[in-house]
Write a structure and sequence with these properties.
Bound molecules: zinc ion
Number of strands: 4
Number of helices: 18
Helix content: 40-55%
Radius of gyration: 32 Å
Strand order of the largest sheet: 1-2
Structural class: mainly alpha
């Protein structure tokens, strides 16, 4: 039921289709002659002086109050916040953890946050300039319409954009220096990230994607794996190694090192650097997990440097791939791993010898030598290729080899005959 007209505020701009909640909130404030912070204190008197990032932290009470006063439906308002992507871009949001692909905007305590991206060209073409919710996704770095890098800070004063700190003005401007964002232009990206970001948007909108040998996985799990890979490429001791491996295998990502600075928190990277990082991580996500494993091994990464199972939850398709392929020898699980490898070989009719196990697992494990089947087993005695007269002196071996050769036999057959005679056993025809 619509609220009574008396309860409505005079300024009630409609929520635009792709608009973010904070953008609409700022427009409602301006339409009623208020600053966003003033409107916030009016609808949420128990909140702080300034609203936090409302795309994420606008709670149901705030959304309900805004719906009641503007006549816009609560459901539509919810869809203009990060709630739209719960179960899609992230599994759930307790308000405390970092969301991999939705970094904070404005300021969190004293820290400047660069999670609000904008396309000045889109704003310049808008009848009603407004922020798109999708601009909050940090794997999106280029405007698909204009092909320019998005801006995450004001080119005039370098402050991050924060529409909720904006003064009582229409349009989108820098809250700090007041510059109209429409007068800027984004730069050209160092690589063409459109196919990658479109692929990620499709994954997000579909809710799942096929991840190589792991089959279909939820979109939030795929994006989480992408973030785990991005973190290794952005910083840490394997960062440069991985980048080098990628540039060797994917020439279009062979870029000068300064394109992508090494950082601990990759949410702080500019759209320019992030577009390279996302493209690199996406490359390693291809043919999952094989390409990533080959790259990880080539730079000497072991599972313990990729994630810590005791204090980090990661999607199965990542944990399993890492545990299976990058596990160091002698660690817990080695016997289990060898047993699994053994059954894989047996199912394929391949003998689980030490060499075959090592080839399948890709590394030597201590448990292999005791669990592998000996090469010669099940071969008729004396015909094994590697039959070596173990324990027999070199002199006798040589003489036996010579005698066997002279009699036209191989060593095993000749020795069998000699021993049978000595032991008074009946002759046996070797098959
Ligand atoms: Zn644009
Ligand atoms: Zn500025």
């Amino acid at each position: 039921m619509l609220p009574a007209a008396d309860d409505l505020w005079p300024g009630r701009p409609p929520l635009l289709e792709d608009e973010s909640f904070s953008s609409w909130f700022a427009r409602v404030a301006a339409a009623n002659g208020l600053r966003p912070a003033e409107l916030y204190r009016l609808v949420q008197p128990s909140g702080g002086l300034r609203p936090r990032d409302l795309d994420r932290y606008g709670d149901i009470h705030l959304l309900g109050a805004m719906a009641d006063k503007t006549g816009v439906s609560r459901e539509a308002l919810e869809q203009s916040t990060f709630r739209r992507w719960a179960g899609w871009a992230f599994e759930r949001d307790d308000g405390l953890v970092k969301l991999d692909w939705l970094p904070p905007a404005g300021r969190e305590k004293a820290k400047r946050c660069f999670g609000q991206q904008v396309c000045p060209s889109c704003l310049a073409e808008d009848t009603t300039p407004h922020l798109r919710l999708e601009w909050r996704l940090s794997f999106l770095t280029v405007c698909p319409m204009h092909g320019h890098l998005l801006l995450d800070r004001c080119p005039a004063c370098n402050e991050p954009f924060s529409i909720l700190r904006q003064e009582r003005r229409e349009g989108v401007c820098c809250w700090s220096c007041g510059a109209d964002v429409r007068r800027f232009t984004g730069d050209h990206p160092p690589v063409d990230p459109i196919p990658v970001q479109q692929n990620l948007l499709d994954t997000l909108n579909q809710g799942w994607r096929t991840l190589g040998s792991y089959g279909p996985v939820y979109s939030f799990a795929a994006l989480e794996i992408l973030a785990l890979i991005a973190r290794r490429i952005a910083g840490g001791k394997y960062a440069y190694g991985l980048r080098e491996w990628i540039s060797l295998h994917e020439p279009r990502l062979s870029l000068p090192p300064e394109t992508l600075p090494r950082v601990h928190d990759w949410a702080l990277l500019t759209p320019r650097a992030r577009c390279v990082l996302v493209a690199m991580a996406h490359h390693l996500l291809g043919d999952w997990p094989h390409r990533f494993i080959v790259a990880a091994r080539s730079v000497g990464m072991a599972s313990s440097s990729v994630y810590n199972p005791s204090n980090e939850y990661v999607p199965f398709a990542y944990a399993h791939a890492v545990e299976w392929h990058l596990k160091e020898p002698h660690k817990f699980g080695a016997r289990y791993e060898v047993a699994s490898a053994k059954s894989v070989l047996e199912r394929h009719g391949i003998k689980p010898t030490y060499r075959n196990l090592k080839e399948l697992v890709g590394t030597k494990l201590a448990a292999m030598s005791e669990m592998a089947e000996p090469v010669g087993q099940a071969t008729p005695w004396g015909q094994g290729r590697y039959w070596k007269l173990d324990g027999v002196s070199a002199e006798v071996k040589e003489a036996a080899r010579h005698a066997a050769h002279r009699s036209g036999e191989n060593v095993a057959a000749w020795l069998d005959k000699v021993l049978r005679k000595e032991l008074k056993l009946p002759d046996m025809r070797l098959s």
